[in-house]
Amino acid sequence: MFDLLAPYIPALTQGFVLTLFYFVLGAIGSMVLGMPVALALGSSSAIIRLPSVAFVEFFRNTPLLVQLFWLHFALPALTGFNTTAQQTGAIALVIVMTAYMAEVYRAGFNSVARGQHEAALALGLNPRQRWRLVIIPQALAMTMPAIGNTLVSLLKATAILSILAVPELMRTTSRISDYTADPILFYSLAALIYIGSGLALAGGLHRLEVRLNRWRHR
Amino acid sequence: MFDYQIVVSAFPALLQGLVTTVLVTIAAFLLATGLGTLLGAATLSPRRSMSKGALGFLHVARATPEMIAIFWAYYCLPILLGANLSGLTCGVLALGLIGGGYMAEIVRGGILAVDRGQWEAARSLAIPRPVIWFRVIAPQAMRKMLPAVVNYFTDLLKATTLLAGIGVGEVAYVAYLSGSASFRYLEPLTGVAILFFLLIFPLSVMARRLNARGSSH
Predict the structure, then answer these.
(1) CA-based nearest residue in chain A for residue B200
(2) What is the interface pTM, i.e. ipTM, of the complex?
(3) CATH number, domain at B163?
(4) C-beta neighbour count of A78 within 10 angstroms
(5) Given an 8 Å threshold on Cβ–Cβ distance, is B184 in contact with A156?
(6) CATH of domain A2-216
(7) First-to-last CA distance in chain B?
(8) Residue A29's CB: how many other CB atoms inside 10 A?
(9) How many Å lie between the alpha carbon of A197 and the closest alpha carbon of chain B?
């Protein structure tokens, strides 16, 4: 079996590295961009709130595959500007995960008790300090499980980019499987890699969550 | 710019695609619900080998990308089983098995959320065990599970589009094909995006309402 596998290890490694690249890009992009969007979702001004609600709801309530098709094939008809499959994939992944992450953050903000806002206000903290020192740290600790779930879905979502022929692990596997006519070996191997990394990610995040909670209650 | 005529002429094909989407969703949902109920109950079994096994399946199913499961089923199952399986069957099996993991977690959470006192009260009334399960625990657990089940259903509806990867004519793939035939992607793809939003958004709102109602008392 190893003889069958050996010639394809470099290609599979390359595919997996690209999968990890998309994962890291989507994770950092969505965790950073999700914050301003989440703050906009809770804004008292309708001009700020409504567009952010529309953005989040639209991307959370349509399939990623349709978004990928739309951005890759339909949008150029409007803008006259083409993107490569890799660019489309990166853009779509960051946008859709930002929408999910913003909703996770928003739920976290809502879960911080009202009294915390009031206590911070009573201590004379300005709005910036209130959010930075009181609300956001508590919200983050409470939303760790939801952030973890979102990151695991992100890892799984990277495989969907294969539909645009982005040469990540899924697509690379398909090509090797077609070429060698040995789908069982290569698809099973790819499945094991995905499951292994998914379990490792979920386990790592869980451990981090336990440690954060222990630190918080000290 | 946006030519409605194209959506109108693609309508019969899109409608047929939608029927396939709904069919796949319902079939996978039934499979996931059946499997999830059994597995979810099994995770709470006092027999450790049973609960460990069920929990193991649950974790693996949740870590598996739908895409690889669909492709694995489509390319490997026919060889392993020596049977001719359609893309639709393989897709339903893949989505249903992964969904079984999600539903198992929902069922487990629902049962655990029912107050222990309910079980003890029923026991002290000498109600037989199966009756306790079906008449006392299950109805309360189901009410607690409902928002999560609706959320899972919307995820499943979105995941059915992945069957496009193995050439199943669900509605997103039909829209893509109709675009590639006419070189007008904008109209069918916009139409299908709006269609999914109209299907999924009301369900999401419903899940959120149910959740709010559940946590208010």
Answers:
(1) A61
(2) 0.92
(3) 1.10.3720.10
(4) 11
(5) no
(6) 1.10.3720.10
(7) 52
(8) 19
(9) 8
